[in-house]
């Protein structure tokens, strides 16, 4: 188990946002976090990477409790790509991705071939190698998203957290990025809204609702017509794709009762 969340709780403005979540993510697996807007996906990701502290419960990376891991060590180990990540406009694509190497370097250390290799590989993985000299502020929304993912990859983390990484991406790049993440030798937790893409690429999914895990497990077991109606208020017909064997969700109409 590389990420273990036990009965985690977090409140904001007197409201319980993460309400007793327990999840175990095995090494190398990709977990999809699904749930309606405001169900607590981003809040949980921030707790897992130590940007927020749980009020009760325990989060562990490997054997170590997250709050006890020194900050420098933590930032070498875990990377997060948040929604609407911003970057100083006066930089190039290459500069942004090089930032991913910061946790691995001391203030006086030289830039190494290993740093170069990590940056090149990350840029190549997201298809942004040819645009490495381009100014950040001239990039499209989807290109910016891919560069932020490259920055996280350049960090060479053991655990990778992504908050809606397919936002702004055209369908080809959505497929490319999720396929890339699913093949990486890392443990990943990915907040997603597209149920079909989650079913296609995630090893396991967890459905959040009002800060709680309503269901977790294999996509084929978790994604049922009843669950999607209860949690998302949408009627569906779910069968297995004849192409990849994963659940295929056909959306019918809004389910309001
Ligand atoms: N610092 C905060 N103060 C007050 N409320 C907060 C704070 N952070 C999050 N919330 C609330 O907690 C709830 C969960 O937010 P969160 O961003 O985790 O949801 P989400 O599932 O990621 O949503 P989305 O799908 O819309 O991105 C929301 O109702 C949000 O308004």
Automatic annotation (TrEMBL):
The keyword Transport applies. Keywords: ATP-binding, Nucleotide-binding, Transport. GO terms for molecular function: ATP binding; ATP hydrolysis activity. Residues 3-235 form the ABC transporter domain. Pfam families: ABC_tran (PF00005). This is ABC transporter ATP-binding protein. The lineage of its organism: Bacteria, Pseudomonadati, Pseudomonadota, Alphaproteobacteria, Hyphomicrobiales. Belongs to the ABC transporter superfamily. SUPFAM superfamilies: P-loop containing nucleoside triphosphate hydrolases (SSF52540).
């Amino acid at each position: 188990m590389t990420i273990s969340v036990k009965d985690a709780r977090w409140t904001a403005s007197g409201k319980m946002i993460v309400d007793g979540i327990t999840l175990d993510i095995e090494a190398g697996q990709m977990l999809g976090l699904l749930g309606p807007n405001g169900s607590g996906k981003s809040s949980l990701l921030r707790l897992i990477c130590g940007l927020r502290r749980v009020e009760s419960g325990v989060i562990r990376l490997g054997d170590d409790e997250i709050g006890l891991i020194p900050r420098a060590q933590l930032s070498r180990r875990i990377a997060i790509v948040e929604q609407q990540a911003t970057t100083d406009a006066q930089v190039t694509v290459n500069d942004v991705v090089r930032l991913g190497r910061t946790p691995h370097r001391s203030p006086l250390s030289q830039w190494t071939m290993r740093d170069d290799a990590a940056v090149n590989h990350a840029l190549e993985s997201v298809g942004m190698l040819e645009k490495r000299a381009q100014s950040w502020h001239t990039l499209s929304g989807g290109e910016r998203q891919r560069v932020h993912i490259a920055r996280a990859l350049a960090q060479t983390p053991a655990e990778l957290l992504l908050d809606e990484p397919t936002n702004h991406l055209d369908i080809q790049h959505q497929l490319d990025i999720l396929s890339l993440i699913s093949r990486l030798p890392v443990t990943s937790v990915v907040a997603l809204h597209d149920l079909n893409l989650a079913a296609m690429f995630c090893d396991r999914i967890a459905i959040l609702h009002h800060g709680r895990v309503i269901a977790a497990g294999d996509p084929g077991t978790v994604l049922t017509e009843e669950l999607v109606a209860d949690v998302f208020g949408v009627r569906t017909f779910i069968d297995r794709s004849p192409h990849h064997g994963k659940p295929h969700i056909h959306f019918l109409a809004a389910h309001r009762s």
